[in-house]
Amino acid sequence: MEFDPNSNPPCYKTVDEDIVIQQDDEIRLKIVGTRVDKNDIFAIGSLMDDYLVTFRQRPSVPPSLSPALLKMAVSGTLYTYPDNWRSFKAQIAAQYSGAQLRLRCSPPHFRFGTTNRSADFLRKFPAGKVPAFEGDDGFCVFESNAIAYYVSNEELRGATREGAAQVLQWVNFADSDIVPPASTWVFPTLGIMHYNKQATEQAKSEVRRALSVLDAHLQSRTFLVGERVSLADISVVCALLWLYKQVLEPSFRQPFGNVTRWFLTCLHQPQFKAVLGDVPLCQRMAQFDAKKFAENQPKKDGVKKEKKEKEKEKEKEKEKEKEKEKEKEAHGAAPEEELDECEQALLAEPKAKDPFAHLPKSPFVLDEFKRKYSNEDTAAVALPHLWQHFDPQGWSLWYAEYRYPAELSQTFMSCNLITGMFQRLDKLRKNAFASVILFGTNNDSSISGVWLFRGQELAFQLCPDWQVDYESYTWRKLDPGSAECRTLVTEYFSWEGEFAHVGKPFNQGKVFK
């Protein structure tokens, strides 16, 4: 190794030793023997008789850590479930920083839904969320961005004050502008949540807007912040991962060439590849699979087993009662115990009657329609089923509109108004179905919906407990055979359409079922 003092800056021209990384304000590598390209070297100095080399950029060969420096690196356990894109952020960051992570994502070390609900886990991570990180020094932290930040180095976080602010800017952008619409669009294709056409189309529009912002920013840049990979790139790549794998087909991503170029550049980095492997890009936009969605719903096997066990217990109790009766017959019946006044009063109370018991039986089965609505496409399956089996003699359709729209302020409060009404009508669910929609924005909104009731009258009048909220609405009975009724049912039950009578944009909807 020869030092050239005449070079600018002065540096060693050749290096043929191994190196280990030591993190400081700059990337400095202690020479202990791996081949390093001479073009990477920026300057050299010494510290406590050890040579320290400062590099122009991170060497292409990932350096190993000396035992002394391993003590300085972050190390600990990362709890998560398999293929959790949120945990990828910390794993990729650790590949760059040298942090040592032990992954616990499968039995017997970690069982999602069980381990994260245990008392020991909740003592360390009160929210019970994953990913969660426990350092070897006892330090515990949850939330994926916080973990990724903790296991990173200064280069990833942003070496300057301005750089750190820009990194945080893009991390927040990923969480606020990419993740929500990506989830709405992608999750139905994975069978995780129900498909809603209007919500999906809105999500596509929001994804386009986010990609446009990124594409413009990356037009003259290789990475989001500075000239090297940072937490900004890691966070945004992870947020876009399922979009590129599931739905961003070539025609959709074609206008955003800068984003795709940057995305692939990041994926080809060894540190990304070590965690993500080969990521195939979507060739054909995935669609909602009703069958997969139904398969992913909680199975009722446990309920069936419980029923069988209860039936067995009842049979055993009956056998015991028969044996007791036989004993009484053999030895003479014992006098019955006298009931106190309270017990006598309870027995004298009439049992609660079904408010709909007076109505004749109807061929329309509401539960069948609800299953179709929950598990099948609304427009293609659920609504045709409704009109094919609807019994206009046994059921009625009503249009409801909130009387006091001027009093509605924040949309989240208006949404809570709908949710509260649904909760108070819980016992009505077997005989009713509704879709109620909040239209508009903060301080300019309205609430209206379409309800399906058993019988020909408003069901609220059958029980005092159901009358808390209904007077806050105007109610109009619909004619099932009219074009207006068909339009309202289609628009409100599918959450899409012109809603010409409202005059405000769709905000969000709630279904009572």
Automatic annotation (TrEMBL):
InterPro entries with a match to the protein in the record: EF-GSTs, EF1B_G_C, EF1B_G_C_sf, Glutathione-S-Trfase_C-like, Glutathione-S-Trfase_C_sf, Glutathione_S-Trfase, Glutathione_S-Trfase_N, GST_C
Boundaries of every EF-1-gamma C-terminal domain copy: 352-513
Keyword Transcription assigned: no
Assembly and binders: EF-1 is composed of four subunits: alpha, beta, delta, and gamma.
Protein's name in the database: Eukaryotic translation elongation factor 1 gamma
Domain GST N-terminal: 74-159
SUPFAM superfamilies referenced in this protein's UniProt entry, alphabetically: eEF1-gamma domain (SSF89942), GST C-terminal domain-like (SSF47616), Thioredoxin-like (SSF52833)
Gene3D superfamilies: 1.20.1050.10, Glutaredoxin, Nucleic acid-binding proteins, Translation elongation factor EF1B, gamma chain, conserved domain
Region (Disordered), start-end ranges: 296-339
Keywords: Elongation factor, Protein biosynthesis
Compositionally biased spans, kind Basic and acidic residues: 296-331
